Amino acid sequence: MMNDEFKGARLLLTHWITSLVSAIHHSSFLLHRLKEPIVFYLVCYDVVLDRRRTKVAHILEGYGLRVQKSVFECVLTPDQREMLNKKLAKFIDDDEDQVRFYPMSPRYRKMVSVMGMQPEREVDDVAFIV
Questions:
Q1: Residue range 31-44: average pLDDT?
Q2: Torsion angles phi and psi, residue 42, rounded to 5
Q3: Taking Cα atoms as reference points, which of 42, 40, 66 lies closest to residue 54?
Q4: How far apart are the C-alpha atoms of 45 and 72, rounded to whole Å?
Q5: Phi, psi at 75, each rounded to 5°
Q6: How far is CA 130 from CA 50, 63, 93, in A?
Q7: Using CA atoms, how far apart are residues 82 and 50, in angstroms rounded to an integer?
Q8: 88 closest CA partner among 57, 129, 120, 127
Q9: How far apart are CA 75 and CA 65, in angstroms?
């Protein structure tokens, strides 16, 4: 019984914290959004060497949500996109590696379907923290 109460309390606390963080960043992100346009990107990479691949993945984790092993969903302002490009360029070998940015409109993002395992969170252009 104690274990079930602990799980319930933990779930409630996790939900509360997630909601609070989302609300705080939602309001500040909306203010930021008024100044700069944001774009939702599907970012895919193919990097040959493990060391470079690890660096690329680590950089992208700071900008978005990993949805597959080499695919991220990122919400970026033009300045963030430029900074991300500069960081990635340090680890990409132009002769062997590739990173692709696919911009996605809100209309088509709503049409995305996922088969199989669902990600635990979704990237939302008004609630995602970067």
A1: 78
A2: -95, 115
A3: 66
A4: 9
A5: -110, 115
A6: 25, 5, 26
A7: 24
A8: 57
A9: 9
3-state secondary structure at position 69: coil
116: left (phi over 0), alpha (psi -120 to 50) or beta: left
Instruction: Find the helix packing angle between 50-61 and 78-89, rounded to 10°.
Output: 160
Confidence of residue 36 (pLDDT cuts 50, 70, 90): confident
Give the three-state DSSP class for 41: strand
pLDDT of residue 113: 87
111-115-121 Cα angle (round to 5): 70
pTM of the predicted model as reported, rounded to 2 decimal places: 0.66
Amino acid identity for residue 103 in this structure: P
Instruction: Count the residues in the chain.
Output: 130
pLDDT at 99: 97
Largest CA distance in the chain: 59
- Does the pLDDT of residue 129 top 60, yes or no? no
Residue pair 2/42 in contact (Cβ under 8 Å)? The answer is: no
Q: Which residue has the higher pLDDT, 118 or 56?
A: 56
The one-letter code for the residue type at 2 is M
How far is 67 from 119, CA to CA, in rounded Å?
A: 6
